[in-house]
Design a protein that fits this description.
Order of helices and strands of chain A: EEEHEEHEHHHEHEHEE
Largest interface: A-B, 30 and 25 residues
Radius of gyration of chain B: 31 Å
Shape of chain A: globular
Order of helices and strands of chain B: HHEHHEEHEHEHEEEHEHEHHHEEHH
Structural class of chain A: alpha/beta
Oligomer: heterodimer
CATH architecture of chain A: 3-Layer(aba) Sandwich
CATH superfamily of chain A: P-loop containing nucleotide triphosphate hydrolases
Number of domains of chain A: 1
Number of strands of chain B: 12
Strand order of the largest sheet of chain B: 2-3-8-5-7-6
Radius of gyration of chain A: 18 Å
Distance between the termini of chain B: 28 Å
Bound molecules: adenosine-5'-triphosphate, magnesium ion
Helix content of chain B: 40-55%
Distance between the termini of chain A: 13 Å
């Protein structure tokens, strides 16, 4: 048992850390064990995918990391803070300001234009400052939608809608963007384009992405893939030497 | 805030069919409310006005009469009328003061001693004119003439001639089978309790439009003075102002007048049945309005709840992005109010048009139903609405209340949607 002290530890504080996390859902008389004890660390700058078959607990884990839900057991730390110690309001603030969300079904507000959808995220996060208009426009420009700002979601293609969703997540400059199967509702060409866009944002701005998928094309593009099966981690592969985590490749974060 | 407001209003226009139905519900509710309020105001306003006129806006009686009023105690009369009438008429605001006698009597036509009872009212013709407009409500025959005949008959000597005139209400006439020109024997009591009867001639059959009013027999004051053996007095003095509202200052002035200090002064709305009725009418109106607001709110609730369920994912996303519970409630309540503003405006206008052009100008004929009401409630067969411009605003306001009441529950339901719903959403 030779534990290195924090001072001499070369790795930075993880952006997000799960320790012995379990999540149970009551389902009638049954209890569904969706996540059965997961230990994982996500570091700033990562581009990580949860991969696994349907029902393996990908979305459930993203919910926990994204502060959308609370775990049944174990600890969840976001930027060093134990979420169990945060009130609902504080958790809401973390969610609104520090985390961006991208969903499989885009989930844009249909009555708002692309511009307003992005603006709404800033407003709800309480991040409207002088010059926010430029910020919204810049976010939309960066996803290639400079000419579509006044359109409503119904007037945009699926790929374009997901770009608006990316701009909406990005505009807050969050610590972490969580994307649940962001390409599942897109054809492979659009899916690849969306993924490349996310990847370039990761490379250019260092935005941390954590997403889920069961699409091999998506996994190909991830730098780190955490394999899930039945609510448990079955593998953690790092596929890129530029990985900002210095703890080495293919090592499970805890107890391995 | 502005974006949320705009979002709420755009949401209102989102499912046009559903919003149209919600708006229509509110429109119908508001229109119904306008018509209902207008009509009940007309109906009850009529009852109150008529009732007050018949009972006398302000009344002077002896304190003993006031105590035993239900028994119509003839003995407790005002013996010397003239100084009382003079004092009342000299009071500022008073437009008329008249004595009245009222008693129960049996009615007999020909030899057929029937079991028919009626209330007989005796007063100067001017009182019948002011309180009932009687002379214009005698479709068959004419108004009774002066007091002379009765005075002569009572003076004794040459009995029974000339004949004494009487006007009989249409329903009483039907019951006893009296026609114009028939002799009618009124059997009653004198003030000391002995039996007394008087023969009158039916000169007119009145129709005042209400059952109770059509069961009376109307004669001159002298006729009843003769029958009751109260030669110069009457049990009541009824005092009138230009409008019903004048009753308040007049009552105050009469009560303060030392010349009238031996008498009991009271306003119409202080005496039964109106002392209890006006409160009941207000309560009934509020209950009816409450029921309409509630039912309409249920309609709003139903459609708004559908919208909330349909938008679960979207609300979840906004909640995940930081939308507070309070703001979620705001979003849906503003949407409901937006729909209600349009529905309510149209409803208030439609309701007012119906109220004014149909209810107020034409009225609704209740037919014979009103004749079954108890005496004292003089309800016209044809009831007119009473619409006022202020009711536009009132009805519109109640439309907004409907929206807030109906929208509150769905809005609270929406605010309970957890952020995690954003992730579960599949469309
Ligand atoms: N709210 C819930 N109530 C009950 N059971 C749930 C709930 N949410 C998820 N589960 C169950 O938890 C398990 C993990 O679900 P989860 O949605 O995390 O899987 P997933 O890996 O995201 O699957 P998919 O690829 O189909 O999206 C499943 O067995 C699922 O049925
Ligand atoms: Mg999932």
């Amino acid at each position: 048992m030779t534990t290195t002290s924090a001072g001499s530890e070369p790795s930075p504080t993880p952006l997000c850390e799960l320790v012995g996390v379990k999540k149970n859902y009551p389902l009638g008389d049954l209890i569904v064990h969706a996540v059965k004890g997961v230990d994982v660390r996500i570091y700033a700058g990562e581009f990580t995918a949860f991969a696994g078959p349907s029902g393996s607990g990908k979305s459930t884990l993203l919910n926990l990391v994204g502060c959308l839900d609370r775990q049944s057991e174990g600890q969840v730390y976001i930027e060093g803070r134990d979420v169990a110690t945060l009130s609902d309001t504080e958790l809401g603030d973390v969610r609104a300001r520090r985390i961006g969300f991208i969903f499989q079904s885009f989930n844009l507000i249909p009555v708002l234009t692309a511009y307003e959808n992005v603006e709404l995220a800033l407003r709800l996060a309480g991040l409207v400052r002088k010059g926010h208009k430029e910020r919204v426009e810049e976010a939309l420009r960066s996803v290639g939608l400079a000419d579509y700002m006044g359109r409503r979601p119904a007037q945009l293609s699926g790929g374009q809608q997901q770009r608006v969703a990316i701009a909406r997540a990005l505009v807050k400059t969050p610590a972490l963007i969580i994307a649940d199967e962001p390409t599942a509702n897109l054809d492979s060409k659009n899916g690849a384009a969306i993924l490349d866009l996310m990847k370039s944002m990761n490379a250019d701005n260092g935005t941390t992405f954590l997403f889920s998928t069961h699409d091999p094309m998506v996994m190909e593009r991830a730098r780190r893939i955490i394999h899930l099966q039945d609510g448990q981690i079955t593998g953690d592969e790092r596929r890129d030497l530029t990985n900002p985590s210095p703890s080495g490749a293919s090592v499970a974060p805890h107890g391995a | 805030m502005r974006l949320l407001f705009s979002l709420a209003l755009r949401n209102a226009l989102r499912n046009t069919r559903r919003s149209f139905l919600t708006g229509l519900t509110i429109m119908l509710g508001v229109a119904l409310l306008t018509c209902g309020i207008s009509w009940t105001r007309g109906a009850f306003g009529g009852i109150l006005e008529k009732g007050a006129n018949v009972m006398g806006p302000v009344r002077l009686v002896t304190p003993e009469f006031a105590k035993k009023e239900q028994m119509m105690p003839l003995a407790e009369n005002i013996v010397e009328l003239e100084p009382i009438l003079a004092a009342a008429r000299a009071t500022p605001g008073v437009t008329g003061a008249w004595p009245r006698l009222q008693m129960a009597a049996t009615l007999t036509v020909g030899d057929d001693m029937g079991e028919h009872f009626a209330l007989v009212q005796g007063a100067p013709p001017e009182w019948f004119s002011r309180a009932l407009d009687l002379e214009h409500h005698i479709p068959n025959g004419r108004m009774f003439a002066t007091d002379d005949a009765a005075a002569q008959q009572c003076a004794g000597g040459r009995r029974s001639r000339p004949p004494i005139d009487a006007v009989i209400g249409a329903m009483a006439a039907t019951e006893v089978g009296a026609k114009v020109g028939d002799d009618l024997i009124l059997g009653g009591q004198t003030q000391d309790g002995s039996l007394s009867a008087i023969k009158v001639k039916v000169v007119g059959i009145s129709d005042l439009g209400s059952g109770p009013q059509n069961r009376f027999v109307y004669v001159s004051l002298a006729t009843l003075q003769c029958m009751a053996d109260i030669p110069t007095g009457a049990t009541e003095v009824l005092v009138y102002g230009a409008t019903l509202d004048d009753a308040i200052p007049i009552e105050a002035a009469l009560a303060a007048n030392p010349a009238l200090s031996k008498l009991a002064v009271s306003r119409w709305d202080q005496r039964p049945p109106f002392s209890s009725i006006s409160g009941i009418i207000g309560a009934l109106q509020s209950i009816a309005a409450g029921v309409i607001v509630f039912i309409t709110a249920l309609g709003v609730l139903n459609t708004m709840l559908m919208s909330v369920l349909e938008r679960t994912a979207e609300i979840g996303v906004m909640r995940a992005m930081g939308l507070r519970r309070g703001a979620t409630v705001f979003l849906f309540v503003i949407e409901a109010i937006g729909i209600a503003a349009i529905g309510g405006a149209v409803g208030a206008i439609v309701g007012s048009l119906i109220s004014y052009f149909i209810l107020e100008l034409h009225g609704i004929n209740l037919g014979n139903a009103v004749n079954k009401l108890p005496p004292g409630l003089a309800v016209d067969s044809v009831i007119h609405g009473d619409w006022e411009p202020i009711m536009l605003a009132q009805a519109f306001g109640l439309g907004l209340v409907m929206a807030i009441v109906g929208g509150a529950l769905p809005a609270i339901r929406a605010s309970r949607i957890e952020p995690v719903e954003a992730m579960r959403a599949r469309r």
